[in-house]
Amino acid sequence: xxxxxxxxxxxxxxxxxxxxxxxxxxxxxxxxxxxxxxxxxxxxxxxxxxxxxxxxxxxxxxxxxxxxxxxxxxxxxxxxxxxxxxxxxxxxxxxxxxxxxxxxxxxxxxxxxxxxxxxxxxxxxxxxxxxxxxxxxxxxxxxxxxxxxxxxxxxx
Length: 156
Ligand code: IDP
Ligand code: MG
Description:
Layout: E1 2-8, H1 10-14, H2 18-28, E2 31-38, H3 42-48, H4 58-65, E3 70-77, H5 80-88, H6 101-105, E4 114-116, H7 120-130, H8 144-147
Antiparallel strand pairs: 1-3, 1-4, 2-3
């Protein structure tokens, strides 16, 4: 099972879209194993977006991400990283396909509602930045045996 970091960005929180976006992940069958509302500091934004520090949009991105609270989630499932990225859609709502979160809820070329880790190394690093030890929980869902086929001994 993979765990990925999802951030519902300030525009998603301010526009009252948290519930609808969370529902998509729940309905998909992914498990939410960590969740909190928080205000991102300059330092945390800088760490999180360190790979973008030289991009022209960097200053605006940090301003956006620190401007208002975000909802951070740890989301778990088989292949959760790629599944979540697919559900998010292309970077901006103007281009993202209908049926994706960015495609259905936004039109901007800057505000784009959601962040998701782009690979296993990023997921490990980003979960460590946003969640303290003990804040990501391991627990059994009653529905698990109907979400995955467990007849072969592992989740398929
Ligand atoms: P991703 O979030 O789809 O992985 P990245 O290219 O990794 O996209 O960029 C990280 C974030 O930086 C984007 O989600 C978006 O918030 C912001 N960003 C990327 N490109 C631009 C741009 O051209 N203008 C403004 N913001 C941008
Ligand atoms: Mg990225």
